[in-house]
Design brief:
This protein is an alpha/beta fold and 430 residues long. Helix content is 41%, strand content 19%. 45% of the residues are buried.
Length: 430
Amino acid sequence: MLLTLEPLPALEGDCLLLHWGTVANPKLALIDGGPGNNYQDSLRPRLEEIRQKRELARLLIDLVMVSHVDNDHVVGVKKFFKQLRHEVENKTGAPLRHFAVARLWLNTFNDIIGDAVDRYYTALNASLEASVDGAPNPDVIEKLHKAYASKYPNDLDPDEEAYDIALVLAGHGEGRELRDSFGYLFDQHHITALNAPFKKNGHSSLITLETTPQPIKIDGLAFRILGPMEAEIKALQKEFDSYIQDKGMGEASLLAAYADRSIKNLSSIVCLTEMGGKRILLTGDARGDKIVAGLTEAGLLDHGLFKVDVLKGPHHGSDRNVEPDFFEQIVADTYVFSGDGKHGNPERDTLTWLTDARGKHAEYDIVLTYPVDKIDLNRKAEAAKRHKPWKKVTDSLESFFDQRRREGFRFRVFAGAPVKIDLGDEKMPW
């Protein structure tokens, strides 16, 4: 059995390859594509390397899943599908079309908020739309900061929350572009229906916890969706619509409506994959309590505990998405934290909570997508940007890991690509 998770370097974002099946008949999934130029710099070169080493004229990606439409997850996938569409539109010859995708799983922003969001979005003036590669407009961030701080006056870090919400707003456009490219490929019979096999009333549906009371299998790999939940989505849609109807669709009221922490907390697909008794929990940017709630709803917590082989840490290891007890409830053999230090992720507090929860004698692996010194360099720059003090001994990940080792902790750290987490008895030779 082949089951390997391969986290790719993706700047501040997520980009994961999941290989399964057998070495003789391998399958491949792409989970998120990272931001900006990650497609050109990291994702496409790795896919091309796999294709060549497997001696294939065309590499089939059996599943592409976008956990949510923040630009640090969706932009690389959007570019990938744009390239696929371009090749079909231009009738590129088969020898030059190196990739194909069997299915796409995607909940766009207007799926989460409701179809009427397109009307709201187009009502925003051009200054509020995303800038290059989906990066939020600084003007949007500033206005969201004010709206968020007004709505949640006790929040200690409204600037980070405003940035995250701005990413979701920017990602709305990215998600629409991705869906447009998908629609063209679907119409030309190059891909199956969106979110297949998830259906409701005979049509493609949102991917939610309720859509998989039993796991869905793709070529032997089981997928179970643990979030978002339909009841929470409906509540958010109702609140959003009510706010707009009450306040109107002016710029200020629209941004105030978007400045709801539920928008980003509910946006991520949380997915449990399982094969041969091995389990991987993919969390996107979901909040820790929402992940635990999904596990509880699915009846998977055993006396308050859930064990997996691999946990993809929520939101790149941000300390705003989890509490210390998250790592007491979800225990893994390997923890993956994507991020290059931008916005401080992965955070030292998150790693402190993880290692405290596991204790000194537990043996497990921590996987980072960049070398520790590079992550620390960016984390230090982020601290300076926020006018926060920085001391290597108290703030760096390097000193944290060194200190924990001196204290007798037994975890191992794997930092920087390439990293392949092999869970099966076969290892891929590519």
